Automatic annotation (TrEMBL):
GO terms for molecular function: ferrous iron binding; oxidoreductase activity, acting on single donors with incorporation of molecular oxygen, incorporation of two atoms of oxygen. This is Protocatechuate 3,4-dioxygenase. Residues 7-268 form the Extradiol ring-cleavage dioxygenase class III enzyme subunit B domain. InterPro entries: Xdiol_dOase_suB. Pfam families: LigB (PF02900). Keywords: Dioxygenase, Oxidoreductase. The keyword Oxidoreductase applies.
């Protein structure tokens, strides 16, 4: 039966991909961030997940301002990385898992969500960078189920709606009856803004509030509405919605195994958190 082993939460700044490509992992500017992945590598080596369900935001690759779904789930047989030019360049597609994708889609529709279903889909740095960080040898041993959340075009979904989506995905995974291990990813953030008068905005207090509460009290992150988060964390800091949804998908009792916070990386507060599903929820 299926087993959700835990969650990996990480920034997906495209500049990280550039640093990997240039071999800058031990450069003083980058090293404090990359050092945070040691526990994640050990966790993945120990657990050896078969599937990664990734909550992320698309950066105009599949969806643009004229057509922006609130939620979208990939149901493609594979996902080619076709970034907008900032991230890692690799030509091999990531294998998909249509059977599980459709199981999730059908389950969350029954839970009153209405996702866009994508039988063809490409992915950008929001998926590629976390995968390269998690499996630095470039061999991705998991099948991918991507869940895209709108963090770009208003109106944005509320934190509670994203948390509830994550819980609905978690219920779908609990009812998946194949003998597989599943790891959850939440990617993006933390606080940053790339444009306007507040370009470069970083809110360490808000970031640490999120890091402090993610494992023991995720509902604390729901006290701010989406516009509050934009004010607190910056226009791109609203990517915390991806983390909130991913945390919702971890339905067992969790514990934090590792947390890392580094400021700045490319005008971004970069963070990494590893949560273990202590009860190892099984279908």
């Amino acid at each position: 039966m299926s087993e959700v082993v835990g969650g990996i939460f990480t920034s997906h700044v495209p500049g990280i991909g550039g640093a990997i490509t240039k071999g800058l992992q031990h450069d003083p500017y980058w090293k404090p961030f990359f050092d945070g992945f040691g526990p994640i590598h050990a966790f993945l080596q120990r657990e050896k997940p078969d599937v990664a369900v990734v909550f992320y935001n698309d950066h105009g690759l599949n969806f643009f301002l004229d057509k922006m779904p609130t939620f979208a789930v990939g149901a493609a047989p594979d996902y080619r990385h076709e970034d907008e030019g900032w991230g890692i360049a690799f030509d091999r597609p990531m294998p998909g898992y249509p059977d599980l994708s459709w199981h999730i889609i059908e389950s969350i529709v029954n839970d009153e969500f209405d996702p866009v279903t994508c039988q063809t889909m490409t992915v950008d740095h929001a998926v590629a960078v976390p995968f390269e960080l998690a499996w630095p040898d470039g061999d991705f041993p998991v099948k991918l189920v991507p869940v895209a959340i709108n963090t770009v075009q208003h109106p944005l979904p509320s934190p509670k709606r994203c948390y509830d989506l994550g819980k609905a995905v978690g219920r779908a995974l609990e009812s998946w009856d194949r003998d597989e291990k599943i790891v959850i990813f939440g990617t993006g953030g933390l606080s940053h803004q790339l444009e306007g008068g507040r370009a470069g905005h970083i809110n360490v207090d808000y970031d640490k509030f999120c890091l402090r509460n993610l494992a023991p009290d995720p509902e604390a992150l729901l006290q701010h509405d989406t516009l509050d988060i934009v004010e607190l964390a910056g226009s791109q800091g609203v990517e915390i919605l991806n983390w909130i949804a991913a945390r919702g998908a971890l339905r067992g009792s969790v514990r934090e195994l590792a947390s890392n916070y580094h400021v700045p990386i490319s005008n971004t507060a970069a963070a990494t958190v590893l949560l273990e599903n202590r009860e190892k929820v099984r279908a």
